[in-house]
């Protein structure tokens, strides 16, 4: 037994299993308690209490919701493509959790520190679009089909400015490794990429574009065309019940967490303190949850955009700015 | 069919908007023939909430039909009662005391403000913004409390009687109403900051859902829909009734004919209604609130009349024909929502689904008022 533990291979396996369990738990925990915050935070804006009956301050509400979803039957509509219908939630949630695997939470806490971390995240986060589309398509429901068509157009439109921003960022940092990118931002908020004006004067704008694209990519209001409850009932998820819906729900929050974590790493200095003191996990979490709060804040403050307005915003505003940012960055890099 | 038209393969599909759909605010069903996300045809199918109010008006005595009127447009219930008692009073030749007319105006205008506030919140929900509803509900709640203190009900008011109103208002109501006017006036800038100036809201409303004056004329569209199309038609000005000629108020008109115009008309009407209420409270005469010698069993002489009021949604008319008995021979109720919905089919043609829902929301439909 002891010899087994000294075997590097076995240790690595144990490490991976622990991280996998930890990440799934982290994603599920965040989905549960961000959904509680999603009800609590707007209740402060909206002169009401929010959940308060189940547990103190409604803290057990997510547990009650989880039990409800788990005990409900997953109904499959007659005429639906059963295999794809049941596969779609898994195709949405697995990439979301995989994305978390390369995120460095602190100097030492990183499941897998690989050199192409950024690329891995963007490869995986592109998959959830297919999952949502298949879910809508396989549902055999007209509302879901419309939503499925929308999700593809929306995600293609918003992936382009997102990637353009990231290309300019990679040009500045010379690295795809998230750990390295964070390390370059050490020591005070003026070193953060969001304020790295010497590299490109458009960096704060780039951060805002990243944030907008992140909202659109994770299908959050005001860009929640996929759900659009006043137009399409529940959009692509109309026919889903029980844990089928639950997985989409967890994936939505997991995507938000990934997006906010990545925003923290790329633009806000990761685990570094704004004043150069006591770097660590807590700073990372504070920044990440502040971004999560902003996501919720935006959702409850704005009406939903019109679908074509959404595409216009991407093609006519965000992509030109992102391209300009890319060119300015390239010129600055060449000159200085 | 020409060869060119045949060779273009065009496939449409039908989706049902309702009878249970988050955007229809009730049991309205719209059969949409869609070409992708564009609407080819939108056929409203109504009648899910039909309760035969008109027939009931012919089978019940005049007094017994009175509570029915509040069940049609329940969001602005007082206007239906207003139209009905006005018609019957005209038929029976009853003169209403001055104080009662003033109280009717005050309560009806409060109801209009409540209705417009509710609409503003519900419209924002159609557009996907949830927060404003809670703010408008908060203000509407104050009105409901005030009206509850005099009418005894919070939604389906049955307050007006033939010849007056059933309860006099007290000082507490007057003070509370004045307080409410101050409160709502101070909150209007907040609504404009939260809703009117919101860039996404403007994008979703400006230029969206045009309803021209010509369309309104053909379908009988009235109220904010007509005034949002640039026609200054308001029953309170065009065919003055009750105590309205004694108050100074404007009819807000916007010529843009889009959703934004209809929204702005309603927001301005809230302000104008507050002005009317304030003037009525200032000039409130003393005296009785019920006409004397109104018989218990009303038997209007033979004859017919049409009485029109400006409800929160447009012109609400009652055509009553009396054959001299204690029941009406014919009770025709002209509901503004019915006419306003009927123009939806023509106006929504070729629109995007999301825009058509903004248009539907901007019509301010109350489904039981359509179905009656």
Could you characterize what this model shows?
The complex is a heterodimer of chains A (336) and B (372). Chain A has 336 residues and is an all-alpha fold. Chain A has helices at 2-6, 8-45, 61-71, 82-100, 117-138, 142-173, 178-183, 203-217, 229-232, 242-267, 281-301, 307-335. Chain A contains twelve helices and no strands. In chain A, helix 4 (82-100) packs parallel to helix 10 (242-267) and helix 6 packs antiparallel against helix 8. Chain A is globular and about 65 Å long. Chain B is built from 16 helices and eight strands. Chain B has helices at 3-7, 53-59, 62-69, 77-92, 98-126, 131-151, 171-196, 199-205, 213-219, 224-227, 235-238, 259-283, 336-342, 344-347, 353-362, 367-371; strands at residues 13-17, 29-35, 38-45, 160-161, 164-165, 303-311, 314-322, 328-334. In chain B, the strands form three sheets. A three-stranded antiparallel β-sheet of chain B has the order 1-2-3. Chain B has a three-stranded antiparallel β-sheet with strand order 6-7-8. A two-stranded antiparallel sheet of chain B has the order 4-5. The longest helix of chain B has 29 residues, at 98-126. Chain B starts with a helix and ends with a helix. The mean pLDDT of chain B is 87. Chains A and B meet through helix 6, helix 9 and helix 12 of A and helix 5, helix 6, helix 8 and helix 15 of B.
Chain-averaged pLDDT of chain B: 87
Distance between the termini of chain A: 58 Å
Instruction: Give the helix level of chain A as a range of percent.
Output: 55-70%
As laid out across the biggest beta sheet of chain B, the strand order is 1-2-3
Class by helix and strand content of chain B?
alpha+beta
Shape field of chain A? globular
What do we call the CATH topology of chain B? Answer: Cytochrome-c3 Hydrogenase, chain B
């Amino acid at each position: 037994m002891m010899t087994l533990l000294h075997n590097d291979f076995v240790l690595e396996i144990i490490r991976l299993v622990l991280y996998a369990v930890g990440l799934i738990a982290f994603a599920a925990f965040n989905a549960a308690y961000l959904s509680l915050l999603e009800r609590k935070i707007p209740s402060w804006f909206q002169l009401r209490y929010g959940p308060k009956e189940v547990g103190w301050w409604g803290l057990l509400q997510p547990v009650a919701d989880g039990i409800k979803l788990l005990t409900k039957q997953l109904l499959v509509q007659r005429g639906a493509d059963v295999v794809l219908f049941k596969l779609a939630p898994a195709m949405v949630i697995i990439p979301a959790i995989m994305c978390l695997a390369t995120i460095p939470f602190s100097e030492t806490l990183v499941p897998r520190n690989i050199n192409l971390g950024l690329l891995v995240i963007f490869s995986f986060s592109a998959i959830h679009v297919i999952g949502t589309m298949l879910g809508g398509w396989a549902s055999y429901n007209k509302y879901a089909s419309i939503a499925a068509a929308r999700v593809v157009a929306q995600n293609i439109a918003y992936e382009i400015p997102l990637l353009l921003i990231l290309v300019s960022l990679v040009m500045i940092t010379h690295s795809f490794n998230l750990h390295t990118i964070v390390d370059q931002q050490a020591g005070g908020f003026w070193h953060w990429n969001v304020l790295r004006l010497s590299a490109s004067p458009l960096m704060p704008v780039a951060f805002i574009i990243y944030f907008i694209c992140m909202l659109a990519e994770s299908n959050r209001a005001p860009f929640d065309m996929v759900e659009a409850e006043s137009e399409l009932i529940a959009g692509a998820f109309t026919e889903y019940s029980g844990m089928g819906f639950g997985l989409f729900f967890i994936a939505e929050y997991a995507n938000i967490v990934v997006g906010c974590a990545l925003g923290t790493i790329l633009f806000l200095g990761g685990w570094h303190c704004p004043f150069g003191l006591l770097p660590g996990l807590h700073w990372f979490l504070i920044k990440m949850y502040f971004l999560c709060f902003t996501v919720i804040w935006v959702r409850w403050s704005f009406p939903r955009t019109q679908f074509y307005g959404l595409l216009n915003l991407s093609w006519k505003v965000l992509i030109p700015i992102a391209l300009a940012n890319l060119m300015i960055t390239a010129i600055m890099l060449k000159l200085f | 069919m020409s060869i060119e038209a045949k060779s273009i393969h065009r496939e449409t599909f039908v989706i049902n908007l309702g009878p249970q759909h988050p955007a229809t605010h009730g049991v309205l069903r719209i059969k949409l023939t869609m070409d992708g996300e564009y609407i080819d045809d939108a056929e409203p199918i109504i009648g899910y909430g039909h309760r035969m109010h008109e027939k009931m008006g012919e089978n019940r005595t005049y007094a017994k039909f009175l509570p029915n009127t509040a069940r049609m447009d329940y969001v602005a219930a007082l206007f239906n009662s207003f139209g009905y008692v006005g018609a019957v009073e005209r038929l029976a030749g009853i003169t209403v005391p001055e104080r009662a007319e003033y109280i009717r105006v005050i309560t009806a205008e409060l109801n209009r403000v409540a209705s417009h506030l509710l609409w503003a919140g519900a419209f924002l929900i159609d557009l996907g913004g949830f927060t404003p509803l809670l703010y408008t509900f908060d203000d509407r709640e104050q009105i409901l409390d005030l009206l509850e203190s005099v009418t005894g009900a919070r939604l389906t008011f049955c307050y007006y009687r033939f010849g007056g109103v059933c309860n006099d208002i007290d000082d507490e109501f007057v003070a509370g109403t004045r307080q409410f006017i101050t409160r709502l006036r101070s909150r209007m800038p907040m609504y404009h900051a939260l809703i009117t100036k919101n860039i996404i809201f403007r994008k979703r409303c400006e230029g969206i859902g045009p309803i021209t004056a010509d369309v309104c004329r053909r379908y009988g569209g009235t109220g904010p829909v007509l005034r949002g199309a640039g026609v200054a038609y308001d029953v309170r000005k065009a065919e003055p009734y009750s105590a309205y000629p004694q108050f100074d108020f404007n009819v807000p008109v916007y010529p843009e004919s889009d959703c934004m115009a209809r929204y702005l008309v309603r927001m301005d009407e809230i302000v104008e209604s507050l002005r009317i209420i304030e003037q009525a409270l200032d000039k409130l005469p003393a005296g009785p609130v019920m006409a004397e010698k109104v018989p218990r069993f009303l038997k209007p002489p033979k004859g017919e009349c049409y009485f029109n009021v400006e409800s929160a949604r447009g012109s609400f008319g009652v055509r009553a024909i009396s054959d001299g008995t204690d029941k009406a021979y014919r009770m025709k109720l002209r509901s503004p929502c019915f006419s306003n919905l009927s123009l939806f089919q023509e106006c929504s043609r070729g629109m995007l689904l999301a825009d058509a829902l903004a248009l539907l929301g901007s019509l301010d439909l109350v489904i039981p008022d359509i179905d009656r």
